[in-house]
């Protein structure tokens, strides 16, 4: 049995940054998805850079300002040169992302990741947007730079992660969400032929989150759970090692 937990959205806001910091410093998080295009990205990285973490690129094309020139990626931006919102992606009946433009922005974010961290991403994936062309672009850039590409699947179908099966779980948008219950159910039903990953978005609420994100209170629930004695005792009682992306793959 291989179990992973991932904290997404480092850089999104100060509240999210400090929530993720707590889940590393006082909790169990080791895998962090880093958004590099936000005003609080550098501050977020500074908080966690000296901690024992596995940092991935959480490629973001639905909040904030692009890293590349907006004129080069018109399918991704609005009339103000800002990324189109995730709501626009969800409401669209077709994939309006132009693959070549997606690759330009993904490469720019990869370069920014390296400029901020002086590291290669331990894994490479996408924030919030289920666009086939975006995911295809991320896979292309990942292969170009020999990075671990983490595709998206929350229907029970595993994705390939460096030659291993990865089963992804995320229930934070469901009514009555209980993160500890979700974690236990994932463990109890863990797959023998791969790795099970719980995707979390721990954080504290601030004006930026309340203004721009539909995921609010559940971020605080996850921040609390990932630092809780209840979770730590459960891991110890069941002798569960939480894997990192660096430990997965052939």
Automatic annotation (TrEMBL):
Xref: Pfam families: YdjC
Molecular-function GO terms, alphabetical: deacetylase activity
InterPro entries: YdjC-like
UniProt cross-references to PANTHER family, sorted A to Z: CARBOHYDRATE DEACETYLASE, YDJC DEACETYLASE FAMILY MEMBER
The name this protein goes by in its record: ChbG/HpnK family deacetylase
Organism: Catenibacterium mitsuokai
């Amino acid at each position: 049995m291989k179990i992973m937990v991932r904290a997404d959205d480092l850089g999104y806001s100060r509240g999210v940054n400090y929530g993720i910091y707590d889940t590393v410093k006082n909790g169990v998080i080791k895998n962090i998805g880093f958004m590099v295009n936000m005003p609080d990205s550098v501050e977020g990285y500074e908080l966690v850079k000296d901690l024992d973490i596995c940092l991935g690129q959480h490629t973001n094309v639905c909040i904030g300002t692009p890293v590349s020139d907006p004129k080069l990626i018109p399918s991704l931006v609005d009339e103000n040169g800002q990324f189109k919102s995730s709501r626009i992606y969800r409401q669209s009946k077709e994939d309006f992302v132009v693959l070549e433009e997606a690759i330009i922005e993904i490469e720019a974010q990869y370069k920014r990741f390296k400029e901020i961290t002086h590291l290669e991403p331990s894994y490479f994936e996408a924030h919030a947007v289920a666009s086939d062309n975006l995911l295809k672009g991320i896979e292309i850039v990942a292969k170009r730079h020999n990075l671990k590409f983490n595709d998206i699947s929350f229907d029970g179908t595993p994705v390939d992660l460096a030659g291993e099966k990865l089963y992804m779980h995320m229930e934070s948008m469901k009514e009555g969400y209980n993160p500890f219950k979700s974690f236990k159910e994932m463990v109890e039903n863990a797959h023998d032929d791969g790795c099970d990953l719980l995707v979390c978005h721990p954080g504290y609420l601030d004006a930026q989150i309340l203004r721009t994100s539909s995921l609010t209170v559940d971020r605080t629930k996850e921040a609390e759970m990932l630092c809780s004695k209840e979770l730590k005792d459960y891991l110890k009682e069941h002798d569960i090692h939480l894997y990192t992306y660096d430990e997965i793959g052939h």
